[in-house]
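Hi all, posting the design record for the shared folder.

TITLE: backbone redesign
STEP: 1 of 1
STRUCTURE INPUT:
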């Protein structure tokens, strides 16, 4: 009991260490890509695989790790995940050549599993009324980690070298591993359950084929045999995977669970919110660093571009923390609506007005605050909509879909800007179109928020599908809100 009480107070710190370290590891390599390319004596495409390898590994590992956490308890799985991720980051930081670095980055991608495991742990150790704030805090860490990585990249590279950027996440993961061993309580495993390894293997194949085609499309060409072949392979594997998952007794991803209104609306919104997050990550720095001679660029440095991201990251974190209180008062559906309006409004503002840096700051802060609300809301919608023993896999799939959306945001925004180029420089209309497209994605989130479940009228943590309504459990049977995943009612 004493260990559990300690965990309740220290779980936010553990979540901060683990999630922030993973977010830094994912984002921090981006500013170092030019130097990595030079020192590793590789091409730009080869250097980009330092990011792609971790993205693909995280996409595959996240839902599988979430499922393992549901079956065997989140504590023991979290310890393994943190140990593997730490080993991967150390390998990447000390790598003598590119293949070893890519292997280390792929191992580090297993750390993506900290998200669903952290959500499961929070649900186990916190009372329902404190779950939403903790989920909101963790959901906002991804944006803050990305912003901090850009801000520290310049000084670290200048003073210590680019390899020290890869050592930075280790400083968060090692204390996180110790803290997880010390404070996270054990939970009873489900010995009768088993992992759907065939489903996991097929799912991994779908993700690797689809995300490789998506991330390499610009380098290989969207109509190249490689991209078309991988897309076809992904479609075939997806059809086989859907058939397998519909027939096995204990599927990796329960397709009936994914059809629940609180889950599919949140998942679709996560794809679009991920797009909006990374669209800004591409467009804002490019616009700031574009030569002033273009007539609309600012001729800024990489440091100025990074500083533009800091207020947005801070706004995202504050909004994510506030989302928990708002969840209890107005429900996550309303929080998602507010997040969609704020983010869409921020992008609309900069699409129309981007002649001064203060306008970019204003639009960026609105975007960050809105995404903080949206990310927290979709996570809380999923957590509240599923049974307790399905929290890990459901939030794992939700996190995966954010990654897919983020990849789309990066690639589509880069294509939009590149397509507008005149005499070697992007045209202003490319940025206007890119900002407008991101705003359009948030209009889609707004529509999905209107379809999402309303908060219950009484009791619990505000996570029900509707006012006093019944909903379908993960096993397909109707249950009341008090039974569905611990969303207690009176």
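Okay, here is what came back for every position:
SEQUENCE:
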């Amino acid at each position: 009991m004493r260990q559990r009480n300690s965990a309740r107070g220290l779980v936010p710190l553990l979540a901060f260490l683990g999630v922030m370290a993973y977010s830094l590891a994912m984002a921090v390599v981006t500013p170092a890509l030019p130097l990595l390319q030079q020192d590793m004596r590789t091409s730009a495409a080869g250097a980009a695989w330092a990011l792609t390898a971790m993205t693909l590994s995280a996409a595959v590992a996240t839902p599988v790790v979430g499922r393992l956490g549901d079956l065997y308890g989140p504590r023991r799985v979290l310890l393994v995940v943190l140990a593997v991720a730490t080993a991967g980051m150390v390998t990447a930081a000390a790598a003598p050549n590119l293949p070893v670095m890519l292997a280390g980055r792929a191992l580090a991608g297993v750390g993506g599993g900290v998200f669903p495991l952290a959500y499961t742990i929070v649900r186990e150790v916190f009372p329902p009324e404190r779950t939403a704030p903790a989920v909101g805090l963790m959901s906002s860490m991804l944006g803050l980690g990305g912003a901090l990585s850009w801000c520290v990249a310049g000084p670290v590279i200048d003073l210590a070298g680019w390899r020290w950027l890869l050592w930075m996440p280790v400083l968060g993961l090692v204390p996180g591993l110790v803290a997880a061993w010390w404070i996270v309580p054990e939970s009873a495993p489900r010995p009768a359950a088993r992992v759907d390894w065939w489903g996991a293997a097929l799912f991994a194949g779908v993700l690797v084929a689809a995300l490789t085609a998506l991330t390499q499309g610009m380098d290989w060409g969207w109509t190249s045999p490689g991209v078309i072949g991988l897309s076809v392979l992904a479609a075939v594997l997806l059809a086989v995977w859907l058939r397998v998952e519909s027939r096995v007794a204990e599927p990796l991803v329960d397709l009936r669970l994914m059809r629940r209104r609180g889950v599919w609306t949140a998942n679709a919104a996560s794809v679009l919110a991920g797009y909006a997050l990374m669209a800004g990550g591409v467009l804002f720095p490019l616009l700031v660093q574009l030569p002033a001679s273009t007539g609309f660029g600012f001729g800024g440095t990489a440091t100025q571009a990074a500083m533009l991201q800091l207020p947005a990251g801070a706004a995202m974190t504050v909004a994510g923390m506030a989302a928990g209180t708002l969840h209890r008062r107005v429900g996550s559906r309303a929080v998602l609506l507010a997040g969609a309006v704020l983010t869409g409004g921020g992008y609309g503002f900069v699409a129309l007005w981007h002649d001064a840096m203060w306008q970019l700051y204003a639009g960026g802060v609105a975007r960050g605050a809105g995404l903080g609300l949206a990310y927290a809301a979709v996570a809380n919608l999923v957590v509240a909509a599923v049974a307790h023993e399905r929290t890990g896999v459901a939030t794992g799939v939700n996190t995966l879909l954010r990654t897919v959306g983020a990849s789309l945001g990066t690639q589509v925004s880069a294509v939009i800007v590149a397509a507008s180029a005149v005499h070697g420089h992007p045209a202003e209309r490319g940025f206007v179109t890119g900002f407008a497209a991101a705003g359009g994605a948030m209009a889609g989130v707004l529509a999905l928020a209107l379809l999402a479940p309303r908060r219950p009228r009484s009791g619990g943590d505000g996570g029900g599908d509707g006012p006093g309504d019944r909903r379908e459990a993960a096993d397909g049977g109707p249950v009341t809100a008090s039974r569905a995943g611990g969303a207690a009612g009176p």
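COMMENT: The CA atoms of residues 43 and 212 lie 17 Å apart.
Let me know if anyone wants the other runs.
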